[in-house]
TrEMBL record, chain A:
This is Ferric oxidoreductase domain-containing protein. The keyword Transmembrane applies. The chain crosses the membrane at residues 6-32, 53-73, 93-113, 125-143, 155-174. Keywords: Membrane, Transmembrane, Transmembrane helix. Coiled coil: none annotated. Residues 14-136 form the Ferric oxidoreductase domain. It is a multi-pass membrane protein. It comes from the Bacteria. Pfam families: Ferric_reduct. The keyword Membrane applies. It comes from Nocardioides panacisoli. It is found in: Membrane.
From TrEMBL, chain C:
This is Ferredoxin. Pfam families: Fer4_15. The lineage of its organism: Bacteria, Bacillati, Actinomycetota, Actinomycetes, Propionibacteriales.
């Protein structure tokens, strides 16, 4: 079982799904902040969706890591899933994925403790979600075997994800420029 | 964005200080420590229990505008080495009483704070100086340099902004953050500077404490009434004249402390966050915190503005609201959006349009919806125009103005 | 036991979630900022806590 193709498929599949989940989380995070209240989808729906997808991606991340570690075809140890340095199998690309995982864990934990942290500290940490997403994309491109072939199944989803976050990032920056008062870290800590 | 509207009453370049019965008794002797000590003698050490007893017995209240009992603050802060803060920032341009104390009686103010700090076991006394009153700030620095107290004076300079002198804004300044109000979840005396209990009062309050410590309770009670002993500082302002600071005993009629040119005209009592009063009201009202609160005429920081005879109080109110709207820290949504809208509506009324319904709506939207009392004070001023001067309001709603360039003053008196 | 909903005004940025989550107690003014119309009753306490947690700016507090 630990050397069969099942784990290998599971790892590739969860990887692609993860990329989609993280992307949608980021886009929803931006959407939850924008627009005017009272128009379109209620904001708490967007916000709840953003949170639940992010939590779901943590579960998916667990499956992704577990399938990679348990699979004996590649030599990845448990600690290598958490420490972004010193891996034996494609150390740079695996390290980027590991770093992404670490950042995601911090972002999720701080969000669960948000009411105790205060808005300003939470927000500073939460902005790292952009970095986690970018690291995960780099990890996917570098290590993902399905992306090595232009006709691979993962190429289109990855391209769509990069495009979606690109649009979200542009919208976010445009809003920050138009309404600087909404995005500066103000108010009590 | 256009520049914020200027204050209709500028920060006084010069202040006329009249000699008074208690705090301002030694004002002719100069601001030096030697003159101060020769009048009062050395600063005695007063135990906390005795200080508490004295400030309770005379019913000393804060003189910054809220008139909060000083003894309540003292007791809330006692026991945990509170931070003592003397607020000299005087954010309201029309007020000059703390400036007058800084210029004329700085050691009385400092003695009040030092005696209290000693009684509480506090080592630090923070002094918050105004940025836009350089003479007053310089005199306080000189006074600090003269003293050899066993406390550390820590000096801060508040921004030249109306809301910069608000208690929470001052505590933000002391912590190195922007000098703007924030939400207070607990009184400063419980959780203030860096979360520590903080005894923050303005200069006049500390001067009263100083007088009470140096001269004793009997001398303090020599002025005022049995229920409300002591004196209060007033700033009288009038367009084109230096601000005048005088000390009056509690219980005198407001009308009797006003200069002759005020006769027959309405005045703005309590400053820009205050209320309009007719000449009749000024005659019927005595200088007293409870009596004035009962008729909706808060003494506030003690500013009485007497407009030019024959000038339009609606137009003046509009200019004040324009100024106050520009002085919002811009952090609280209802104030940020509501005060400019209110300024537009009041200006429309001053120009002879009927904006009363919109003004009423906006005052409801703005009141009690901010971190500080800035929106509330602005609302009080606007509402007082409707309450105290209904004829002027009615005339403007009908497109007219009672204040005509000539003969208006006499006409107004005849009309009543 | 009822409670009061208090707004940290400088923190509030008119996102409006409090109105969506607690329309019984929170209305919005013409600029989108909350108007707290009354006390939070016993039955509404859990909704009010959700509104406090859900505020994107953490600008709400329940006080007794």
């Amino acid at each position: 079982m630990t050397d069969g193709p099942l784990l290998w498929y599971l790892n590739r599949g969860t990887g692609v799904v993860l990329l989609v989940l993280l992307t949608v989380s980021v886009v929803l995070g931006v959407l939850a902040m924008g627009g005017r209240p009272g128009r379109g989808v209620p904001r708490f729906v967007t916000q709840t969706f953003h949170r639940n997808l992010a939590l779901l991606s943590v579960l998916m991340l667990l499956a992704h890591v577990a399938s990679a570690v348990i699979d004996t075809y590649v030599d990845i140890r448990w600690w290598q899933a958490l420490v972004p340095y010193g891996a034996t199998y494609r150390p740079l690309w695996l390290g980027l994925g590991t770093l992404s995982l670490d950042v995601i864990v911090v972002v999720v934990l701080t969000s669960l403790l948000r009411t105790r942290l205060g808005h300003r500290s939470w927000r500073a940490v939460h902005l790292l979600a952009w970095a986690a997403w970018a690291l995960s994309v780099a990890h996917a491109i570098g290590i993902g075997t399905d992306l090595a072939h232009p006709d691979g199944l993962a190429v289109l989803p990855t391209a769509v994800c990069v495009g979606a976050v690109g649009v979200a990032a542009v919208a976010r920056i445009a809003r920050a420029v138009a309404h600087p008062e909404l995005t500066t870290a103000r108010g009590p800590a | 964005m256009s520049a914020p509207a200027p204050s209709p009453v500028p920060v006084p370049g010069r202040v006329r200080i009249q000699r008074g019965p208690a705090l301002l008794a030694g004002v002719d002797e100069g601001p030096t420590l030697a003159a101060h000590r020769s009048r009062y003698g050395p600063l005695p050490t007063v135990p906390l229990a005795e200080l508490d007893r004295r400030v309770s017995a005379v019913g000393l209240r804060g003189r910054g505008g809220a008139a909060f009992p000083f003894a309540t603050k003292l007791r809330a802060a006692a026991g945990r080495r509170p931070v003592v803060v003397v607020n000299l920032s005087e954010g309201e341009p029309a007020s000059a009483k703390d400036t007058a104390l800084a210029l004329g009686r700085p050691h009385l103010v400092l003695d009040g704070a030092v005696a209290t700090a000693r009684a509480l076991g506090s080592r630090d006394v923070h002094l918050v100086l105004p940025a836009d009153r350089p003479d007053a700030a310089a005199q306080v620095r000189l006074a600090v340099a003269e003293r050899k107290d066993r406390v550390r004076f820590r000096l801060h300079t508040a921004d030249a902004r109306f809301v910069a002198g608000q208690a929470r804004a001052v505590i933000e300044l002391m912590a190195g953050r922007p000098n703007l109000p924030v939400t207070a979840w607990a009184p400063e005396a419980v959780s203030g500077h860096r979360g520590r209990p903080t005894l923050l009062s303005n200069a006049e309050t500390w001067a009263h404490v100083g007088h009470l410590v140096l001269a004793g309770e009997a001398t303090y009670r020599a002025h005022g009434t049995a229920e409300e002993p002591g004196t209060a500082l007033l700033t009288i302002t009038r367009p084109g004249f230096d601000a005048e600071v005088l000390e009056v005993p509690y219980g005198v009629r407001l009308r009797d402390v006003l200069p002759p040119f005020a006769t027959g005209h309405p005045a703005l009592v309590g400053g820009f966050h205050g209320a309009w009063a007719t000449w009749e009201t000024l005659g019927a009202t005595r200088v007293s915190v409870p009596a004035m609160a009962a008729v909706g005429l808060p003494l506030g920081a003690g500013v009485v503005h007497v407009p030019d005879p024959g000038s339009c109080p609606v137009a003046f109110t509009s200019a004040v609201v324009d100024y106050l709207a520009g002085q919002s820290a811009g952090r609280c949504g209802p104030c940020l959006n509501g005060l400019p809208a209110l300024a537009v509506a009041v200006r429309a009324m001053a120009q002879g349009r009927d904006a009363a319904a919109r003004i009423d709506e906006l005052t409801r939207l703005v009141a009690r919806r901010g971190a500080c009392a800035h929106p509330d004070g602005t609302v009080r001023l606007v509402r007082s125009l409707f309450g105290a001067l209904p004829e002027e309001v009615a005339a403007h709603r009908a497109g007219a103005c009672l204040a005509l360039p000539s003969g208006a003053a006499s006409r107004r008196v005849v009309a009543r | 036991m009822s409670a009061q909903l208090r707004v940290d005004w400088p923190a509030c940025q008119a996102r409006g979630l409090c109105h969506e989550l607690l329309p019984e107690v929170v209305e919005l003014d013409e600029w989108g900022y909350p108007i707290v119309t009354g006390e939070v009753s016993e039955e509404l306490l859990s909704d009010a806590r959700a509104a406090v947690r859900g505020c994107p700016r953490l600008a709400l507090r329940l006080v007794d």
